[in-house]
Amino acid sequence: MMSRKFLFLAVFSILGLSAFSQMSADRIYFGVKGGMGLSWAKYSELKNRDPKMLFGGVGGVFAEFEFGENRLFSIRPEVDWLSRGTKISDSDLDYKLKAKYVDVRLPLIFNFGDYQSVRPYVYVAPVVGFVRGGDISLTEHGMDYKVDVSEANMANTYFAGAVGAGVKIPIHLNGGKRLQFALEANYQYGFTDTYSDMEKSGEAIAVNRFWYDIRGNRKLQGLEITASLSVPLSIFKRTPKKKVVEPVYVPEPVVVEEKPVVEEKPCYTLEEIMELLGKGESITGKTICAIDIINFEFDKSTIKKESYPYLDKIVRLMKNTPIHVVVRGHTDNVGDADYNMELSKKRAEAVYNYLLKAGVEPSHLSYEYYGMTRPISTNDTPEGRLMNRRVEFEITE
């Protein structure tokens, strides 16, 4: 029994660590949860009895791994501690089963909306439960019985499925850090019989038949309402301390007048380019970076209509000046390198075709694509990835 638990938890941990190694720190959350649950039993051959719900608490720990653009999907391995059972209270009998469980669950979650705001979600989850104790009490014909839950009177492993829904509420902190609070409800349906082999063979008592004559099966079901609080792994990253440099005596240098060297900016806005033209300055060799301005449909190269006005301004610039423009497509590092390279190609080509159809001379236009190989910011933050998902317009002679 114990070796089976440890083997299952070891496999569970290996899967979690494998997912952990492939993700950035802001997509991994660790958290705790707690709440209340109701459970009851369904007997296949219990006659003239009406099993009632049993109230209990639930608590657990979990890790959540978010995937996909806008983090639509997530996996949340978790370990929970709770009780399950049922009770029967009739005029001639008073029975209560309360078994303590350790659950290992793997919710597969679909999230709605933007991950930086309040977002609802739904999920399905396989559930494996391991019995860790409890008690069974029975009063019948003036006689009282009470025994501990064990392998003698309870199947030690429980398999179930769960469906649930909830809502995630971000709590923003200073320095761009945040916590995540969630409220959730789920329903669980037990697939396996919870009678033990010893009960069925007559070595333990039960309610639905005379002693030593158990028939049918007993399956558990339940409802839970929980609240959870989790933190992203990135919250634990420390800001590097500034090195203290001791002052060093430097002799006064000989001053030689030189013309100031103006560093070329890696990126200009379209407005800055127009301002340079207005001053009569050259714009050759400069690059216009369209960051979060030219947008495409999710996972496609179709340009959204909201981007047309900006592209039309590029068209007017090219028609009014004898410049050549190279359209360059870039992506962030989310996803496979080959996939990102192909996506940047299709999106650069889509912008290129739009400009041609708008009347730009083909001899003044070309396009290139680089996938995620030329970032201009870090890919470890949402803001940095936003800057790296861009279309550039390099102005050449």
Automatic annotation (TrEMBL):
Its main location: membrane. It is a multi-pass membrane protein. Residues 1-24 form the signal peptide. Residues 283-397 form the OmpA-like domain. Keywords: Cell outer membrane, Ion transport, Membrane, Porin, Signal, Transmembrane, Transmembrane beta strand, Transport. It is found in: Cell outer membrane. It holds the Pfam family OmpA. SUPFAM superfamilies: OmpA-like, OMPA-like. This is OmpA family protein. It comes from Phocaeicola intestinalis.
